[in-house]
Amino acid sequence: MGGLSMDQAFVQAPEHRAKPSVAEADGIPVIDLSPLFAADGVDVDALAAEVGRASQDWGFFVVVRHAVPEEVVARAAEAQRAFFALPPARRAAVARSEAAQMGYYASDHTQNVRDWKEAFDLVPTRHPPPPPPAVVLDNKWPDDLPGFSPDLALGLGHHKDACALTVLYQDAVGGLDVRRRCDGEWVRVRPIPQSFIINVGDIVQVWSNDRYESAEHRVAVNVEERFSMPFFFYPASYTMVEPLEEIVSEESPARYNPYCWGKFFSTRKNGDFKKLDVDNIQIAHFRKKALVHIQ
Ligand SMILES: O=C(O)CCC(=O)C(=O)O
Ligand SMILES: [Fe+2]
């Protein structure tokens, strides 16, 4: 009955809650990128075909031997832990706002339900930010939260990424689920050391005119703290996103109307801040109505 006193903002509709045990995914493609870095004889076409198949079948895959140095990932993970171990006032000092959207926040909403997570958004700049503060404090998470039923909430609600492509680092705790395309089941993505997860985002879905679909995913609430770092590839804000000219034809017409990425992104971001009474913006809103051919 613990859920009764839980803040209702976090409660997922029954059909969106994670089942007590989510099967670990079998067969998520694991792609070795090392041929890209070989001196010669690189079979880029074969690798591209593998990426194409994975994007089509799953919209999700894991890359290994990607040439990002282990110590770079370790330093980023260390900086992340140091930041989230800071006292609330220090984190709040760099809180994001509707006007300045980068920084710390803990009240994100996905599909109008509050996520059980904290985040720190940043964009790459020419001048790297200063190193994290030297004073690292331990987190003050209680072992259990009275009256709080984690199984009713999600760390991050079900969604598809609005970007072109996401490169995601997750630590060894796990909890990321992807909706398997072949049967619609939620399956858990097993953490693989020294790997990144790549997922196809909405923009690639539109550019490819639905050939590569954006994968739906979510994150469960864990007993243990979990850290992840998603890197979202965005085009320039003035970009008009639409199916690529070279792949649309009379037989295969564009399935989407063009939309301005910058406008889409800022509308989506506004919905992250608070629960809206309407559905947040989705690419489905730009899908052309099916043409009915009456003879
Ligand atoms: O934390 C994760 O593993 C996933 C993060 C994610 O899906 C997102 O931020 O869009
Ligand atoms: Fe995501």
Automatic annotation (TrEMBL):
Cofactor: L-ascorbate
Molecular function terms from GO: metal ion binding; oxidoreductase activity
Domain of life: Eukaryota
Gene3D superfamilies with a match to the protein in the record: B-lactam Antibiotic, Isopenicillin N Synthase, Chain
InterPro entries on file: DIOX_N, IPNS-like_FE2OG_OXY, IPNS-like_sf, Iron_ascorbate_oxido_reductase, Oxoglu/Fe-dep_dioxygenase_dom
Alphabetized UniProt keyword annotations: Iron, Metal-binding, Oxidoreductase
Annotated SUPFAM superfamilies: Clavaminate synthase-like
Family, as annotated: Belongs to the iron/ascorbate-dependent oxidoreductase family.
Protein name: Fe2OG dioxygenase domain-containing protein
Native source organism of the sequence: Oryza barthii
